[in-house]
Every structure is written in C-alpha cells, then in structure tokens.
C-alpha cells in the first residue's frame, strides 16, 4: 500500500505539533520517522493510524483519502511502545484478539490456522499458553508484532517498539523486524529517536524537528549529505566548526576557521568566497597521530589531508573504539572516535590529527 502525506498540520491549542509535513511512502517500504522527543513523530504516526484528524492536509492510502475512515477501517495495525497486551489473556488469545472483533469475525478454523502461522512466524509456538507476565520483554514484543500481523494489514505502524529492550536484544530485533517486514512485503512506518536503529534498518527516513521535516532520504544520504547542521549533528553526531569560504578550488573550497584552513571537497550548492559556512566533521573521520608528534612539514593540506594539532584532554574507552576530546587553540572542543591506546587518566598532551578533504561536509551557515 502506498501512503501519501499532503501538507499535514496538527495543533493542540497554541502548540503546533506537526507542521506542513509531506511525504510519499512506497508500497513495501520500511520508512522511519526520526527525531528527538517532542518533534511530532508519534503524533504523525497516530494521525496515519486514525487516532486523530489533521487540522490541515490529507492522508491518502493508494491514492484515496482516508480522512473519514476510523482506525479499524484503515487496514493498518499498530504496535505501541508499551506493547498493550491483555494481561489476563494467553499469548494465543492475545494474538487472536483482532480476529474476533465484529468487523472481521473470522471463522474459528481459519482463526486457529492464522494464529498458529503468526506464532510460528515469531517463533512463539512454545509460549502459546503463557500469559504476558510470564514472558521476557523480547517475547512480549514478538507477541505484539504477531497480534498486529495476524490481521494481514496493508500498513504496519511501529511506535518505538524496541525502546523497552536491553541493548543486545535491540540489536537482534532490528535484524528480525527488517527481515520480517521485507519477507511479508508490508509497508511499514516506524517511529524512533534512535539514530543507529534508523540507519541500520530503514529504506528511507524523514528527520523531524519541532514538527517540521528537515530532510527525507536514504540512511547513507542523510549521513553523508545532510541538508543542514541539525541533520548532521542528529544523525550520528558531528563536530560543527564555523568558517568562511576563502577561495574555491577545482575540487571544492578552502575554508578559513578560527584554528586554521580546511580543504573541503563535499560542497552543497554554490558557495561564493566570503560566504559563512559550517563544517561538519564526523568523529570517526578524524585520524589521530602519535601524542606529542609534530605536524607534517607543510601542514595544512599536505600529506593527503587537513592536518591540525590540539590538546588531548580526555579519553573514554568503549570497547571497539576510543572517544577522544581535543581542545583547539580557540577553545573549541572536537570529538574523535578511533582505535588506539588510551593515555593514562588525567594525562594532557598535544596530538596531531588529520581529516581527508573528502570527509569535510560543508553546510550553509544558519
């Protein structure tokens, strides 16, 4: 099922929760609504489900407006953040619940078959007679998914379904949910504030801020070609360095900043000299030299990239990498993410670092 949002706006009194949001979601697509708390993503999902009506704009399913249809007639299924399982019913009865309502009232034989298929799909056959309190968080999440899928919806709506799970189980369920919805070919709209969740699962994402869409695109496009500093910082985190275009080059531009000149190749649009810009530097693109080592003889863009030196003030070991905080001459702090040895606690030393010009993202200043 194709889902189209046309200039959707929703207000609650003086607060505009969703403002002029438009998007086209293709049949079978895994589409994420991504943003910080309070950005309007859950409100938008509930409007799609029919648990409220937009003040302006239209929602279309396969080209037909569903503005007058109640939730149970939209052929959607929603998995809530808290799963909303009936505590007094068994797993089997919870999954069958949607097939017993008057709108469907599926015959008992067919109902039994569909419930068994849904339980098998979610690997829950051995838990059919248990009640929700006898299940782990991951098992409860699977029951909620099975209950949503058993009614054969054309559109699956997921409201932060993994937020109550531990870190290891979240990683497992990311893979499982993507595999499942792709196997079934269901159009899926997924709300989350977790950037890694979105980057690892989505076909496309809409990044929201204060009710507005900042950018829609594939995960790699959002990460490597963010539309503005909000998207650059929210998707994966970035060091944001203000600067001014000094001159254009055949490959890009030279940007003057408070602690040196940067050569950049990744420009977005025309940036004439003297234009104020913001450089977005991903922490993992900063390659650290040996503490106390000198810069290459020519510095600047010599030896394959931008070389600078700063004061290494803090490091945090996180298993697969080390986070390093580097204080520059102007007082700004840059965060680097790289493998390598940790310095002793409390050690402060100068350290050189290099960033390839291809990894310097240049954004128009806001």
Describe the 3D structure.
The chain is an alpha+beta fold. It has two domains: 3-230, Rossmann fold (3-Layer(aba) Sandwich); 238-364, OB fold (Dihydrolipoamide Acetyltransferase, E2P) (Beta Barrel). The protein is built from eight helices and 21 strands. The protein has helices at 41-49, 91-100, 108-121, 137-149, 167-184, 195-201, 219-224, 229-234, and strands at 3-12, 15-25, 30-34, 56-61, 64-65, 76-79, 155-159, 187-192, 204-209, 212-217, 239-248, 253-257, 260-264, 266-267, 276-281, 287-288, 306-317, 322-327, 333-338, 349-355, 360-364. The strands form four sheets. The protein has a six-stranded mixed β-sheet with strand order 6-7-8-3-9-10, with helices on both faces. Strands 13-12-11-15-21-14 form a six-stranded mixed β-sheet. α2 (91-100) packs across α3 (108-121), α2 packs parallel to α4 and α3 (108-121) packs across α4. It is elongated, with a radius of gyration of 25 Å. Mean pLDDT is 90; it is low at 299-303.
| Strand segment count | 21
In the predicted model, the low-confidence regions spanning at least 5 consecutive residues are: 299-303
CATH superfamily of the largest domain: P-loop containing nucleotide triphosphate hydrolases
Secondary-structure-based class equals alpha+beta
As a whole number of angstroms, the C-alpha radius of gyration is 25 Å
Distance between the termini: 38 Å
Number of domain modules? 2
């Amino acid at each position: 099922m194709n889902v189209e949002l046309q200039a959707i706006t929703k207000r609650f009194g003086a607060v505009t929760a969703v403002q002029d949001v438009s998007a086209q979601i293709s049949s079978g697509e895994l589409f994420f609504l991504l943003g910080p708390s309070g950005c309007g993503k859950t409100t938008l999902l509930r409007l799609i489900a029919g648990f409220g009506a937009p003040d302006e704009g239209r929602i279309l399913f396969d080209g037909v407006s569903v503005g007058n249809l109640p939730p149970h007639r939209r052929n959607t299924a929603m998995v809530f953040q808290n799963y909303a399982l009936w505590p007094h019913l068994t797993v089997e009865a919870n999954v069958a619940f949607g097939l017993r309502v008057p709108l469907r009232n599926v015959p008992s034989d067919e109902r039994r078959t569909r419930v068994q298929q849904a339980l098998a799909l979610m690997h829950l056959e051995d838990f059919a007679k248990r009640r929700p309190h006898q299940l782990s968080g991951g098992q409860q999440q699977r029951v909620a998914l099975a209950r949503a899928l058993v009614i054969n919806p054309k559109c699956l709506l997921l409201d932060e379904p993994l937020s109550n799970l531990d870190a290891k189980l979240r990683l497992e369920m990311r893979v499982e949910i993507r595999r499942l919805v792709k196997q079934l070919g269901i159009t899926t709209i997924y709300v989350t504030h977790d950037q890694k969740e979105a980057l690892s699962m989505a076909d496309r994402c809409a990044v929201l801020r204060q009710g507005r869409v900042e950018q829609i695109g594939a995960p790699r496009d959002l990460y490597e070609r963010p539309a503005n500093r909000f998207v650059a910082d929210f998707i994966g985190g970035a060091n944001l360095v203000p600067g001014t275009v000094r001159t254009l080059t055949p490959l890009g531009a030279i940007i003057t900043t408070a602690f040196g000149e940067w050569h950049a190749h990744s420009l977005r649009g025309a940036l004439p000299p003297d234009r104020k810009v913001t450089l977005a530097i991903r922490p993992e693109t900063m390659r650290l030299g040996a503490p106390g080592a000198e810069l290459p003889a020519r510095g600047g863009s010599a030896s394959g990239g931008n070389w600078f030196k700063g004061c290494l003030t803090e490091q945090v070991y996180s298993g697969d990498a080390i986070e390093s905080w580097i204080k520059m001459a102007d007082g700004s702090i840059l965060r680097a993410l790289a493998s390598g040895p940790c310095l002793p606690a409390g050690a402060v030393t100068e350290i050189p670092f290099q960033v390839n010009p291809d990894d310097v993202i240049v954004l128009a200043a806001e």
